[in-house]
Write a structure and sequence with these properties.
The chain is 38% helix and 19% strand. With 287 residues, it is α/β, with parallel strands linked by helices. The protein has two domains: 140 residues, Rossmann fold (3-Layer(aba) Sandwich); 139 residues, 3-Layer(aba) Sandwich (Rossmann fold), CATH 3.40.50. The strands form two sheets. A six-stranded mixed sheet has the order 2-1-3-5-6-4, sandwiched between helices. β5 and β6 form a beta hairpin. The chain is globular, with a radius of gyration of 19 Å. The two termini are 19 Å apart. It binds 2'-monophosphoadenosine-5'-diphosphate. 2'-monophosphoadenosine-5'-diphosphate binds next to α6.
Length: 287
């Protein structure tokens, strides 16, 4: 990466970055700079710590400095929306923007988290989601993006179960017009578990350092199940370990991170993202 910066950087260099608070742990600079370098593109991606009361200034800065694009992460994904010129339909339905493209001064907001997740699931676990019966655990912001993106794949049903059942009911109601999305009480999972094809954990249960926690027991589920977890630290969470030990297919959250970045990269550069380069860069840094 040193070479790519020293030799190329100039007033023509494409400026990219991510804003968030906190931002210190972000793997996005590593991932995107590796991708830029792999394709020999004249661009640079930095991480910028932007406090909530500086968000407006930061977006003005994107315009003034001619940034080609930025990623937006916690806590700005919602608040950034009214500051843009246009918000893509998916991002509007999800209610969050994680990627901004600057098209000759016009800022357009997208959400690549949900589509990134689905692309990863299709490439790494199950290429055809049509007719599948999917159980989603959790009803927060991450679940919203994923459930919306999943409805675009025509599954038979998406059940949403959450600790706070009201949030599952609300999410199902919001997305019902896009597909067969139903809220289900945690206790009622017993009744449907033998019909489930794919389980997706969207909660933080099992994330480092609480690596022994699991959002759900897989007892009574079929063994030809696919279990997917958005978490990528650790790469194998407790529920994925349980799935592997009972012979089920597993899918971890690394791919979602990589593909949300890949979509953003493609929007900014117009080039196919070097997905394997990006994945290896992040994997190396996790080791
Ligand atoms: P995100 O944007 O990552 O989805 P969020 O909107 O705060 O974050 O949602 C977190 C999700 O994880 C919610 O579904 C939350 O359940 P509640 O709606 O009941 O809060 C779930 N979650 C977090 N900690 C949990 C725990 N210890 N047990 C069960 N669910 C948990």
């Amino acid at each position: 990466m040193g070479d790519h910066l020293v030799n190329r950087i100039s007033s023509e260099t494409m400026l990219l970055g991510v804003i968030g608070d906190p931002i210190r742990q972000s793997k996005s600079p590593l991932m995107h700079n590796s991708a830029l370098q792999a394709l020999g593109l004249d661009g640079v991606y930095t991480a910028m710590h932007v406090l909530p009361d500086k968000l407006e200034d930061a977006i003005r800065g994107v315009r003034a400095l001619g940034y080609r694009g930025i990623n937006v992460t916690i806590p700005h994904k919602l608040d950034v929306m009214p500051l843009l010129d246009e918000v893509d339909k998916g991002a509007r339905v999800i209610g969050a923007v994680n990627t901004i493209v600057n098209d000759n001064g016009k800022l357009i907001g997208y959400n690549t988290d949900g589509i990134g997740y689905v692309r990863s699931l299709r490439e790494e676990a199950e290429s055809d989601l049509r007719g599948k019966r999917i159980l989603v655990i959790g009803a927060g912001g991450a679940a919203r993006g994923i459930v919306y993106a999943l409805t675009q794949e025509s599954p038979e049903v998406i059940w949403i179960a959450n600790r706070t059942v009201e949030r599952a009911v609300e999410l199902a109601a919001d997305l019902q017009s896009y597909g067969n999305v139903q809220a289900i009480e945690l206790e009622r999972i017993l009744d449907i578990r033998s019909n489930v094809d794919i389980v997706i954990n969207t909660t933080s249960v099992g994330m480092f350092p609480h690596v022994d926690a699991s959002p759900l027991s897989l007892e009574g589920f079929r063994t030809d199940l696919i279990v997917s977890d958005l978490i990528y630290n650790p790469l194998e969470t407790a529920i994925l370990r349980e799935a592997r030990l009972r012979g089920s297919r597993t899918h971890c959250g690394l791919g979602m991170f990589v593909y949300q970045g890949a979509y953003a990269f493609e929007y900014w550069t117009g080039r196919a993202a070097p997905v394997e380069v990006m994945r290896q860069a992040v994997l190396q840094s996790l080791k």
